[in-house]
């Protein structure tokens, strides 16, 4: 029987040498695995639990949200701040305490006189009401900060949950990629044994398989990182998160401009800035009320030894604003009102710009997801299957199959990236605009 061309050019000794070189190269890339004697996993079985493996924990978005609401340090701090502001309101309602005074004239028992009196400060000009208004506005700002912190926490949670879903999806794709690379390596090995292709083709297939395993290991590591990032929002550990349950392939619809305009005025950032403006105005009114000087009323009893009887003492005192008329504080308060007004306009413009950018990103990502799903990925999948079949039949070279494989993997990566961008854009819109019920915010999951 005639020896095939490749068998004549490269003998069995050369084949063994090249195969051994490929194994050594792979062992150099993965020294730890090679030392422990691992075998390449096939398909997705290595990444999924078997019937004998213990059940893994699962976490839904609602369950993660409940844990974050109960234990997130930032949200707890904001809530304590709101509670502290209620104490400020209670204190602002208090009136000035009376003052008990005692005075004595002369030290001789025959001629000395003693006076005991109460002094009461009477606030004029509406100072107490203005002070209460300032404290109430501070309380409103603190409550709005709690809502803003809650919305920001929701955004972080949705983002980290999406990152975990993305990491899990990448593990699934990487496992499929590795399975395809394994099939290609097996096909190349069979053709080398048959003498139809040079051993170099098998070496290339083994290197491609090693790269696929590298991506699979990296994807699994990213899952652990994403689990820890999610659990950190409530001070937990990655083990308690387990597998995130959700449909990462679903995309959220973009809100129209009417919905955006309706939610813009109630956006958490704008609401907080508006309440800060009201707080500045209340502080300005308080400083203005201080132009009226407070009155101190005194009432007491005087005992004079020489007279031999008690005498009623009544007095009134009021400061004279000759040197301090509180003009500096009034000017400062007015300028802070101007600052708060401009800050409100700035926040409104920034939120409008960011919402518009996030909406455009959402529209663009959704469009690309639809295109990738309907045309790019199916076409790349068909081209890869044809290339592998043609390579097995000897019609195509392994380079053709490898190029089709890379095209398929790139299209799958683009699909995942656009799905992730779509979820991030929708979460950003929800963060900027807020919702009437934060727990029911649309996330696309």
Give an overview of the whole structure:
The protein has 445 residues and is of the alpha+beta class. The protein has a single domain (14-26, 58-440), classed as Outer membrane efflux proteins (OEP). It is built from eleven helices and six strands. It has helices spanning 5-9, 12-29, 31-36, 61-71, 73-92, 127-193, 199-231, 257-264, 268-289, 327-392, 398-433, and strands at 58-59, 99-105, 113-122, 243-244, 295-304, 309-317. A four-stranded antiparallel β-sheet has the order 2-3-5-6, with no helix packed on it. Strand 5 and strand 6 (309-317) form a beta hairpin. Helix 5 (73-92) runs antiparallel to helix 6, helix 6 (127-193) runs antiparallel to helix 9 (268-289) and helix 9 packs antiparallel against helix 10. The longest helix is centred in the middle third of the chain and has 67 residues, at 127-193. Residues 1-54 and 437-445 have low confidence and may be disordered.
What does the average pLDDT come to?
A: 82
Low-confidence stretches: 1-54, 437-445
Please identify which CATH superfamily we are dealing with. Answer: Outer membrane efflux proteins (OEP)
Strand arrangement within the widest β-sheet reads: 2-3-5-6
Q: Which CATH C-level class is it? A: Mainly Alpha
Report the principal-axis shape. Answer: elongated
Q: What name does CATH use for the topology?
A: Outer membrane efflux proteins (OEP)
- Which structural class best describes the helix and strand composition? alpha+beta
Please trace the helix and strand order, writing H or E for each element: HHHEHHEEHHEHHEEHH
Can you give the helix content as a percent range? 55-70%
Helix count equals 11
Please give the number of β-strands: 6
Protein name: Cobalt-zinc-cadmium efflux system outer membrane protein
Pfam families: OEP
Family: Belongs to the outer membrane factor (OMF) (TC 1.B.17) family.
Region (Disordered): 81-118
